[in-house]
Amino acid sequence: MQTRRTFLKTSGCLAAGALLAPNLAKAAKVKDIGIQLYTVRKEMLEDATGTLKKLAKIGYKQLESARSDKGNFYGLQPKEIKKIAGDLGMTVRSGHVHIDKDWQRSIDMAAEAGQTYLVCSSLPSEGQTVANYQRCADAFSKAAEACKKANLVFGYHNHEYEFDKVDGKVLYDILLDRTDPTLVKMEMDLGWVIVTGNDPLAYFKKYPGRFPLWHLKDMDKAKKESTEFGKGQINVKQMLQNMDKSGVKYFFVEQEEYPKTALESAKYDYDYLARLDY
Questions:
Q1: Of 183, 175, 177, 123, which Cα lies nearest the Cα of 149?
Q2: Is residue 13 part of a domain?
Q3: In contact, 217 and 191? CB cutoff 8 Å
Q4: Helices (H), the chain
Q5: Which positions ≥6 away from 189 have C-beta within 8 Å?
Q6: Which of 72, 82, 94, 76 has its CA nearest to residue 186?
Q7: How far apart are the first and last CA of the chain?
Q8: At what angle do helices 103-112 and 78-87 cross, to 10 degrees?
């Protein structure tokens, strides 16, 4: 026979379960993990195909290349890296290059490699002034128009220096405010934003949909160096919980310093994310 006490105890548990259920339903696993190939730059230069095979075995699905001494694809041709990646179940989704005399060639190569995005990895001209950032924003607009003609999306990747202030104005904000949000997108390096004392979530709120790409990394704030996930001070889980607000389509793991080897860190980072509920 069920007494009032057991009824209340049972109903209380059910109520608690009902409250917890929505939270459990919201938990998700990280999927479609990408990597910036600069993470394994030495390995890519030594053996591009072999390194891609190792990354595929780890589980990475999305790739972002970076210009090197051997060109935009570590010595591989655009169609070549596209086929190798495709055969391994991966996609060359983006690439880091510079806005320079070879810009149109970089666009043509990115299109040939099947990329969706082409990212300018650093400012096309130097100078921590409002005038220079205005010039760079105008250069981005022009570069983005050229990308659009090739069915590519233009993006810019930040470091830390863009968050300097001049006359009370954050220089990075000039790049966002002076460019067309439908043409010029941003690849937010979350680590560098946070290290400078800025909040990615505030940028997601102020500039919705401007950040379709991320560099996801953990950082040792004291050393200002990247580290393996869970070993720094970046709240990776919190960032992932705000993907919708960012408008992010793809993120790429990037780690530039390692305790042992780049590939070991790449595996550690992948395994960390694969286990993570957010």
A1: 183
A2: no
A3: yes
A4: 4-26, 41-46, 48-58, 78-87, 103-112, 130-149, 171-177, 190-195, 200-206, 236-241, 243-246, 262-275
A5: 157, 158, 159, 214, 215, 217, 254
A6: 94
A7: 42
A8: 30
Q: Is 181 among the domain residues?
A: yes
Other beta carbons within 10 Å of 97? 22
Domain range holding 101? Answer: 30-275
Instruction: Sort 149 into a burial class: Cβ within 10 Å, 0-12 / 13-18 / 19+.
Output: exposed
H or E segment to which residue 216 belongs: strand 213-216
Give the list of residues 6+ apart from residue 183 with CB closer than 8 angstroms, or none.
Answer: 141, 144, 145, 148, 154
The pTM assigned to this predicted structure is 0.89
Contact 112, 78 (CB under 8 A): yes
Instruction: Quote the number of domains for the chain.
Output: 1
* Residue carrying structure tokens 């057991």: 6
State the chain's maximal CA–CA distance in angstroms: 85
Tokens of 64: 């972002």
Whether 12 is in a domain gets the answer no
pLDDT, one tens digit for every residue, the chain (278 residues): 444 444 344 444 444 444 444 444 567 889 999 999 999 999 999 999 999 999 999 999 999 999 999 999 999 999 999 999 999 999 999 999 999 999 999 999 999 999 999 999 999 999 999 999 999 999 999 999 999 999 999 999 999 999 999 999 999 999 999 999 999 999 999 999 999 999 999 999 999 999 999 999 999 999 999 999 999 999 999 999 999 989 999 999 999 999 999 999 999 999 999 999 98
- Residue-wise over 261-273: b if at least 16 C-beta within 10 A, else e? ebbebbbbbbebb
Question: What SS3 class is residue 272?
Answer: helix
> How many CB atoms are closer than 10 A to CB 222?
9
CATH number at residue 52: 3.20.20.150
Domain membership of residue 17 (yes or no) is: no
